[in-house]
Write a structure and sequence with these properties.
The structure is a homotrimer.
Chain A lengths: L3 H5 L38 H6 L2 H31 L5 H6 L10 H29 L4 H23 L5 H27 L2
Helix pairs in contact in A: 3-5, 3-6, 5-6, 5-7, 6-7
InterPro entries (chains A, B, C): MAPEG-like_dom_sf (IPR023352), Membr-assoc_MAPEG (IPR001129), MGST1-like (IPR040162)
Pathway (chains A, B, C): Lipid metabolism; prostaglandin biosynthesis
Keywords (chains A, B, C): Cytoplasm, Fatty acid biosynthesis, Fatty acid metabolism, Isomerase, Lipid biosynthesis, Lipid metabolism, Membrane, Oxidoreductase, Prostaglandin biosynthesis, Prostaglandin metabolism, Transferase, Transmembrane, Transmembrane helix
Chain lengths: 196, 196, 196
Amino acid sequence: MCVSESVESWCSIPLHTFQLGSMSTNNSPTADVDNTAVLHLGIGRPYQTIMLENEAFSCFVFYSVLLVIKMYIIAIITGQVRLRKKAFANPEDAQRHGGVQYYREDPDVERCRRAHRNDMENIFPFLFLGAVYSLIGPSLAVARAHFLVFFLFRMLHTVAYLCVLRAPTRSLAYVVAQVPCVSMAVQVLAAVASSW
Amino acid sequence: MCVSESVESWCSIPLHTFQLGSMSTNNSPTADVDNTAVLHLGIGRPYQTIMLENEAFSCFVFYSVLLVIKMYIIAIITGQVRLRKKAFANPEDAQRHGGVQYYREDPDVERCRRAHRNDMENIFPFLFLGAVYSLIGPSLAVARAHFLVFFLFRMLHTVAYLCVLRAPTRSLAYVVAQVPCVSMAVQVLAAVASSW
Amino acid sequence: MCVSESVESWCSIPLHTFQLGSMSTNNSPTADVDNTAVLHLGIGRPYQTIMLENEAFSCFVFYSVLLVIKMYIIAIITGQVRLRKKAFANPEDAQRHGGVQYYREDPDVERCRRAHRNDMENIFPFLFLGAVYSLIGPSLAVARAHFLVFFLFRMLHTVAYLCVLRAPTRSLAYVVAQVPCVSMAVQVLAAVASSW
């Protein structure tokens, strides 16, 4: 991050680099020049770019988006298993794929759905906790450790679920992934409480 | 808040243009004047107003809130179908509406619940992806296109689900609505990666 | 946008009060000194701290994190009921706890799962609506009332669900908790619409 140079030369900042309400930045090439919506904070970069300069937040976003993509992949897998096992949740789908007798449940489909639901129960709260935790100014190394542990053990949870790994593997992955979540929740509560 | 010292040393800045900790703005009529919690960014408007001046974020918030309201409406419809079909998920509810024999499942209720669950699987990740995507400074036109496609095809998805439209309509709406989500996920990953 | 006046007089700001890119703050003891990622906004505190100085947002975060912890507790209760009733969702879990005959459903487990799902349907949207609502600059007192009503009636909802309270209690708690959510949704839509 080469911010020091620009800070040093702030006395001579041309006003056009400090404009509020235009979006003629060099690092967002798709920017609409007439867009009057973005706050420049004195360094020629839009507000959004600065937002992402919170490295803990960047790190959180990186792992979160990967986890969201993982959830999308579970949805695709569920659809594929439905097609392969011919087990559809809706009669109109069954009708289209061979007949209403395929409007039925299937254990493999249900397994995918449980994996997906468990992700919703755990990854969605992480999307909230991780974002708020990033805002309270954690050490980057500590924050990264939280996010990485959650990411790795949620990946393991999904693999253990879909590949039917031996019994406590999935539960263990779930428990370990909860540790950084509870840690973040406690730290956020402490930060909010201390600000009161 | 011991900001006054540093504010005082900013000597040449007119205090009213950079006040930290008062909320006497003209554009939030509900503002509590004694509220010392809002950061003014030098232009007499609260931090929050500036946040919403990110037009891509505003646009995202607009469609997102409509989608959340849509999900609330599905919940209401589910309740109405439960009452009309007399199919309750809990014995205590059934007891209150005619007897424990109405503690049972019903295909129409299950259809509503699947529509609701599918929304959770797809709209909740959008709430995250869209917010983060708005922060990386997209073109307003491109961002609006992403949000609008998602919004329209999720609306179509719900209509197709609840009205039992012909078979590939619902699946098609799901797939098309996923396109802007995957696009946003990829762009956010690229933005985060390039900031490292 | 009349920022130019204040910007012109910024040459007299001591650089150390406006450093961008170092994180040597006194109020985040865990901060990594070499972390160049945090934006200081001229007052010696990191961006994140200022974020939490939005008291409505702080208040929202406080109740939200408590609700997330409540959801985690429901998950733990579900697991305990599964163990006590010997009713497992996966054959591999049943195998490990006495045999595949315990791969079965149980009404008490299903009750916990319904409570958890209802939380997902309602608390997750709150995590979004409350955050955005905090950003539009509500009165702290009004915002706190919104969050507190939601928090209290979602707690009541869970108690009513898990303890099988008499019939309309749970539904009533659900309805009352929806009131602040719909109110926030309407206010956010109004704020976004007025900014266009």
